[in-house]
């Protein structure tokens, strides 16, 4: 009889093998589905980036970045991009003007024609938003008439707010780029999501494989005796190995097929998880066929390979497998594995940056996550030795003897929980540290909206903004704020050309204004205006009139426009409007409409991207930790049930001798929960160290250590205890079945 036929016959007649095979297939399906989902994330972000290249074109070599340049060879279109926001939602505005016949401009997918001057194409979501809001809050910002919608192929996600505004070439914003086509540059994969996907593969694949290993151990003792008997009856090592490979392969292949079949469902669910401000299109998560095949083959091969490697004792010493033997004590040299893995991980971190290949970091992280499975059994054995010496209850002695006799099997029950605690500690180190980096620095008060322009256009824009503010019934008015660098002795100070009254409203200063135009400075030393020209930063100076008014609370210099020398060159000019919560949207509309699409800056816009990114990180962290915890709990429960099945003879004999089920249950809970508690403490410390290392990839700041780091350890111990509660039903089943069945 061939090996696969024998394996199939055993599967058909043995109920425990059927349960083990089903759970193994489930574990392989989970592992395959998760890996296919996580590996597809970089492909999904690349698909997004490909669709939206036109929204933020990169300047190609040989083309002028200034709107005023003439004779730009090959340029067909002028493009300028800016961002806006409404109610915390980002709006992408693209201003465009053809430099040749509009029909000759190469358009990206999803855009059927180029809007003429005064016309606009909108995304469907922006059209709906503009229709449901007063024109002064959204529609008037664009200064153009909607004439059509953008297609899905031109949008990052279904909810994206995008406007494509048509212009004549001479009315384009000053930052416009002249390009050969609207799509310029190359699409880039989101590095943060790629890193998270790689970490997720490691963090979730390892618990999935632990779940598979726990499921395959449900019938480990019975299968080992069966295979050993076959070896003693004359079966060759190759035949035994082939039988195990066939038995495990049936479950692994079935699980892989289920995982591949279920991956579209997982991808469909993933489209509802927001990232970067919106959800996903269903087609984003497509994988190349060769990637899918490699994953679908690799996961079952890993499972079958692990099962075959576990046959060494049966193949080499079948008599010991049948009759039992005294296991050799574990070497303390195992303790060196974790420090070596930590050293390898941090060494790869020091030689890697976020823009480079993350594969070395992910490989070292996988090794680091696997290292507790080497050290854990030794710690479990040492803990068992302590139990056998200090026991006061029979359950503690029984637990200690089990931990001491078979520490590998005992640790297996807590392996999944340990990995979940590791992931939780890593996440709770990264998230507070990343949140501590949020914030922004601005020269203006938080309530101020402002935008940059050039000195020549500033007066006209201020007048136009004030007209619109008055039309909208707002009392706020715009002001021009020039910036320059000032020299006071040997010290350079930031200077702002603005009246004292406007400075009190717009700038974060506390100064008492006089009745006449004046210059306000931190000290009374004479001041020179300073500007820079050319590559050599040639310095120009012009003495300011009069002595400055001293205001010790200033960290800057305020210069009234009436006192600025006529030949002074400003380094920049901003148009600023103070706005309350009730007037912000209308004030933003007034700025945008008057400037023809300049970038308006505000606190909510500067913090909006950060808030969106942090919300994304929190969301994927919660999803990942819940998944890891469920996998860890399932593997612990299965391992505990498998422990009972492995020792049916022992427990049956103890029950026959009068040992209460309650005592045996307490012993099983003790041997499952206490080692898990010790191991989770170590896993928590290890996860914190890894979190600090990964944070160092994105920031040079010191990581935040929060008291919440204790939460994964406590929850891990509780999960292990709950998982161990399955021992009581398993023991009752052993008691109900005749001992002769074994």
UniProtKB/TrEMBL annotation:
Record bears the keyword Glycoprotein: no
Task: State the UniProt keywords alphabetically.
Answer: Cell membrane, Membrane, Transmembrane, Transmembrane helix
List residues traversing the bilayer. 21-44, 192-216, 250-275, 287-311, 332-349, 361-388, 409-431, 622-645, 672-697, 709-731
Q: Give the record's membrane topology.
A: Multi-pass membrane protein
Question: What InterPro entries does the record point to?
Answer: ABC3_permease_C (IPR003838), Macrolide_Exporter_MacB (IPR050250)
| GO MF term set | transmembrane transporter activity
The UniProt entry lists the main location of this chain as membrane
Query: Could you name the Gene Ontology cellular component terms for this entry?
Result: plasma membrane
Q: Where is the ABC3 transporter permease C-terminal domain?
A: 201-318, 625-737
Q: Where would you find this protein in the cell?
A: Cell membrane
A Pfam entry, by short name: FtsX
Top-level taxon: Bacteria
Q: Which family does it belong to?
A: Belongs to the ABC-4 integral membrane protein family.
The identity of this protein, by name, is FtsX-like permease family protein
Which organism is this entry from?
Actinophytocola oryzae
């Amino acid at each position: 009889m061939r090996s696969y036929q024998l394996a199939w016959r055993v599967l058909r007649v043995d109920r425990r093998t059927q349960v083990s095979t089903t759970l193994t297939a489930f574990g392989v399906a989970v592992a395959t589905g998760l890996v296919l989902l996580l590996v597809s994330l970089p492909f999904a972000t690349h698909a997004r980036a490909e669709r939206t290249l036109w929204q933020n074109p990169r300047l190609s070599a040989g083309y002028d970045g200034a709107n005023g340049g003439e004779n730009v060879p090959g340029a067909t279109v002028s493009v300028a991009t800016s961002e806006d926001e409404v109610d915390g939602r980002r709006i992408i505005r693209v201003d465009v003007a053809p430099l040749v016949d509009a029909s000759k401009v190469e358009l990206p997918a999803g855009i059927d024609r180029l809007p003429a001057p005064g016309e606009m194409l909108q995304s469907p979501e922006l059209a709906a938003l503009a229709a449901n809001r007063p024109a002064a809050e959204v529609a008037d910002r664009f200064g153009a008439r909607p004439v059509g919608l953008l297609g899905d192929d031109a949008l990052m996600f279904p909810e994206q707010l995008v406007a494509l505004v048509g212009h004549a070439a001479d009315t384009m914003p000053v930052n416009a780029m002249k390009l050969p086509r609207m799509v310029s540059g190359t699409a880039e994969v989101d590095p943060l999501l790629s890193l998270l996907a790689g970490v997720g593969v490691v963090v979730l694949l390892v618990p999935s494989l632990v779940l598979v290993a726990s499921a395959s151990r449900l019938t480990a003792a019975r299968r080992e005796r069966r295979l050993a008997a076959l070896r003693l009856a004359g079966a060759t090592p190759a035949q035994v190995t082939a039988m195990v490979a066939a038995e495990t392969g049936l479950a692994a292949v079935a699980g892989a097929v289920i995982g591949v079949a279920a991956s579209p469902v997982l991808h469909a669910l993933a489209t509802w998880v927001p990232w970067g401000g919106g959800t996903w299109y269903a087609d984003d998560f497509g994988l190349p066929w060769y990637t899918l095949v490699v994953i679908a083959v690799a996961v079952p091969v890993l499972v079958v390979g692990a099962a075959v490697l576990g046959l060494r004792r049966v193949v080499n010493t079948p008599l010991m497998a049948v009759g039992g033997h005294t296991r050799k004590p574990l070497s303390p040299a195992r303790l060196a594995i974790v420090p070596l893995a930590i050293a390898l991980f941090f060494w790869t971190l020091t030689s890697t940056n976020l823009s480079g290949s993350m594969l070395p970091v992910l490989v070292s992280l996988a090794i680091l996550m696997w290292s507790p499975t080497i050290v854990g059994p030794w710690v479990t054995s040492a803990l068992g030795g302590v139990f056998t010496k200090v026991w006061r209850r029979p359950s503690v002695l029984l637990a200690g003897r089990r931990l001491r006799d078979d520490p590998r099997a005992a640790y297996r029950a807590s392996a999944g929980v340990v990995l979940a605690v590791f992931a939780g500690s890593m996440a709770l180190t990264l998230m507070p540290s990343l949140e501590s980096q949020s914030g922004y620095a601005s020269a203006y008060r938080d309530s101020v909206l402002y935008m940059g322009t050039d000195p020549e256009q500033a007066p006209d824009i201020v007048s136009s903004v004030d007209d619109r503010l008055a039309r909208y019934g707002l009392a706020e008015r715009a002001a021009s704020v020039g910036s320059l660098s000032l020299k006071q002795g040997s010290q350079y100070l930031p200077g702002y050309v603005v009246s004292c009254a406007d400075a009190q409203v717009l700038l974060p200063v506390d100064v008492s204004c006089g009745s006449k135009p004046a210059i306000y400075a931190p000290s009374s030393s004479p001041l020179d205006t300073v500007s820079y020209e050319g590559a050599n930063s040639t310095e120009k100076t012009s003495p300011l009139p009069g002595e400055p008014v001293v205001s010790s609370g200033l960290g800057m210099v305020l210069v009234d426009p009436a006192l600025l020398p006529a030949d002074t060159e400003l380094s920049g000019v901003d148009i600023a409007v103070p706005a309350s919560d009730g007037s912000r949207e209308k004030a933003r509309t007034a700025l945008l409409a008057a400037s023809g699409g300049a970038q308006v800056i505000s606190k909510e816009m500067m913090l909006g991207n950060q808030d969106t990114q942090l919300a994304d990180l929190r969301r994927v962290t919660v999803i990942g930790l819940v998944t890891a915890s469920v996998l860890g709990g399932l593997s612990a429960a299965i391992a505990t049930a498998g422990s009972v099945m492995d020792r049916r003879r022992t427990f049956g004999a103890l029950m026959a001798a009068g040992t209460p089920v309650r005592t045996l249950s307490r012993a099983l809970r003790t041997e499952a929960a206490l080692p898990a508690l010790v191991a989770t403490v170590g896993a928590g410390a290890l996860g914190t160290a890894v979190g600090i290392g990964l944070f160092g990839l994105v920031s040079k700041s010191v990581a935040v250590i929060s008291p919440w780091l204790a939460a994964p350890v406590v929850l891990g111990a509780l999960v292990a205890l709950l998982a161990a509660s399955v021992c009581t039903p398993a023991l009752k089943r052993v008691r109900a079945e005749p001992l002769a069945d074994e």
